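Request: Could I get any protein with tokenized structure?
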Amino acid sequence: MAEVLSQSQIDALLSAVRSGEKDVNAQSEEQQEKKYRKYDFSSPRKFTRDRIKMLNGIFDNYSRIINSRLNARLRANCEITVESIEEQRYYEFSNALTEGDVLALIDVAVKGKHEDTPAMLYLSTTTALSMMDRMLGGDGAMDESIASDYSYTDLELRLYEELVRDMISVMGGSWENYIPIAFSYNRTDINPTLSQIIGLDEIVIIVDMKMQFSNISGRMSICLPGEILTNIFAEMSRENPVRRAAVESKSNEIFDSLRDSRLEIVSVLGETQLSLSDIYHLNVGDVIDLGRSKESSIYLDIGGYHWFAGRMGTHKKNIAVRIDEVLDQAEQKE
């Protein structure tokens, strides 16, 4: 219980604030102390921050895809955002489920090879029922006090299957910039608390997404087993000949367009410094000493760097430079 101040203590506090002795906006040392998330060294993280960041971009794209599909299918404005992507143990995900919850199991095929472990998709009960009501022509208004052990009817399970099947079918589109992956609906697990889909201590990635309708909000979670992601990242790290061939074909198009481009090449005879007074009094016929002999090399500059060295001469009665050496660009840029 909070401490109750006496009237004299209240008066003294107000007096200190008026005189400037006490800053009401100042925080205590305990409040100013930064909070850090505890790290369990006995079970180190399996996926790096870069991998999590990449998954965040993938599922941001996926949220936009299913957002447009649900808006058209449910005839309602829906906003879907990714709230968090975290690496956890499977029991942390499983313990948050109740007996009435339903999971959609997802088959995953990486480059045509099917994975043994399924991924999982979870829709909160109120959100799923609201979406089903809209599919049947209702306004999607739901009672927030639905019992936690609510059991879906056979008709609702059928509608649930049609709904998640459509959402799962487009999941692979968000991965196409990295690797071809196919996601397909497998089955509905009506009591996930009793069925052990994967080991409780297995590493999983939980993608938590918020779904906001005009009259109700809920969440959707996607559970990706670590084994699947390990295989996906391994395939992405390997050399992909299909992608390489596509890059090579595009590189030919790029070089074809660059061949007709014009590029300025500057021949540098030498450099010197003159005072402003000397430049002002220059006249036709004056000689400027560059401090170099006529036999010294001349540099050809492209983009501010010395690319070639050569000798000055003539070619068909025109002043020309003969290239004698190609210079190392790495040394200049260092």
Notes: The mean pLDDT is 81. The longest strand covers residues 79-89. The chain is about 35% helix and 25% strand.
